[in-house]
Amino acid sequence: MTQVDRDAALMRVADAKLSAMGLARDSYFVGSPRDERPGLLLRDGVWTAGYFERGGFSASFADRDMERMLERFVRWVEAEQAFTRAAVQMSERQDERRSQDGP
C-alpha cells in the first residue's frame, strides 16, 4: 500500500468520525477542497485544518494526531458556524431597524 492509499484510507476514517461527532457533512470537507468551507487535508502524516475559498487553502492549524485534530476541528467548525449565525442575526436586526425607520 502506498502512502497515498494510506492517506486516502485515513481521510475516509476521519470523514466518518466527523460525521459521527455531529458535523453536518455539507459544512466541511476532508481531502477534496470545496469552496467556502473549512476542511482537513492530510499530507505526509500531518493533518492540516483550514479554510478553502477562491481556489486557495488558508491553513489554520496542524497536528500529526488524528483524534486530537478531529476534536479540535469539530470545536473550530462549530465556533465558526456560531459566529456566522450571530453575524447573520445581527445583520437581520439592523435591516429590520432600518426598514422601521423608513427611507
Description:
- It contains 2 helices and 4 strands, in the order αββββα.
- The protein is an alpha+beta fold and 103 residues long.
- It starts with a helix and ends with a helix.
What is the compact description of this entry?
The chain is of the alpha+beta class and 103 residues long.
Contiguous low-pLDDT stretches (5 residues minimum) are none
Give a quick account of the main beta sheet: strands, pairing sense, barrel closure.
Answer: 4 strands, mixed
Cα(first) to Cα(last) distance is 67 Å
Number of helices: 2
Content-based structural category? alpha+beta
Order of helices and strands: HEEEEH
Mean pLDDT: 89
Strand order in the largest sheet: 1-2-3-4
Form type: elongated
Radius of gyration: 17 Å
- Count the E strands: 4
Q: How much strand?
A: 15-25%
- Percentage of residues in helical conformation: 40-55%
